[in-house]
Design goal:
CATH class: Mainly Alpha
Number of strands: 2
Structural class: mainly alpha
Strand content: under 5%
CATH architecture: Up-down Bundle
Oligomer: single chain
Order of helices and strands: HHHHHHHHHHHHHHHEEH
Mean pLDDT: 85
Strand order of the largest sheet: 1-2
CATH superfamily: MFS general substrate transporter like domains
Largest sheet: 2 strands, antiparallel
Number of helices: 16
Length: 417
Amino acid sequence: MSLSTPSTSNAPPLALPLRINLSIMMFFQFAIWGSWVIVFFPYLTGKGFTATQAGTLMGNGALGAIIATIFAGYIADRYFSSEKMMAVLHLLGAGFLYLMATIDKPDDYWMLFAITLGYAILYNPTLALANSISFRHIPDGQRDFPGIRVLGTVGWIAAGFAIDQIFGSGGKKASDSNGPLLLAAGLSATLGVYSLMLPKTPPEGKAGDTIPFIKALSLFKDFSFAVFFIISFLITIVLAFYYTLTSDYIQKAAGVTNTGSIMSIGQMSELILLPFLPWFLYRFGMKTVLMLGMFCWGLRYFMFSMGGPSGLPYALVLIGIALHGVCFDFFIAAGFIHVDNNAPKDIRASGQALFSFLVYGMGMWIGSLLAGYLKAYYTHDGVTNWSEFWLVPCGGVMVAFVAFGLLFRGGMGKKAG
């Protein structure tokens, strides 16, 4: 469900078959990601890779977005149906995930580097494609998209519980096994086949048009849109610390063994809040919603800096994870809606790809590298000073928060056409 008011939209209701079709796509899209990425860092360090190497390999997920996402948006806007691109990319991705599961020796670091980068180049464009397919077919993006995107959260939660139940039994942790990678490979193959049943989404750009990516860059001419993109990029550098190191942190600093299930607390809060996102946007406006999402990222890191294995410190860890609903929904999900509201019709796919490029790409890549190096800096004799570590991204978020509050002037802005 999604909350709306009569003044929010005059668009017709979203048809149930279309809602189910797109929701299944979102479920698998994020189940693939959630089934392996949350345990990949401790999996690698458990196999003998250094923290710097593990951080770099995690960063390849974002590096792939830098290389491929804009290119995929360009093709989807002009030449190749989005649903067919989804099918090809996920089927190829299944093979790369299988190869990732077979390489587990530090001596093969550069081979694993190449494979993880190859997979990232295949997977990252599908995030923007899934969004653009949804926005293309639903009657009202601001009203209908959260109710579809929430199934992606369900997929992530289901994957987190699945890896704990299947690969974390008998006193073991899911990160001890390559099983999560194999599960991701199977899910990727499934979505690849299913993508052929998605709504037909032919390109909207014309062959003689300016390259859509160049058109998407023209959005920077609007001052508030430029502020939105630039601050999104900068803040995502420190957001990457959460995705890269939280699983390692809760295992080593909070004594957690069922990592997938505990991390799923964040997705559960996301699941609860995402259907209410349209109401928050209507009631408070885009700027306030985005700023609240940013602030909660900083609050989360502050709580992590005081976290521990029991009592109040452990409760702070759990609260920090639970804040993910506000952190993700009010910043990342709302950000995609803001792009859809403002990008011209013929470059929406490239507009989504540009935002993905900045937040899932450049920002996450730089942040993953910094997280690995910073962890190594704060680790002495095998023990990490997590308190000082988490205060660094906390400070970074607060600087971005203040800059955004002072400079951004955008509202909810409904799209034209």
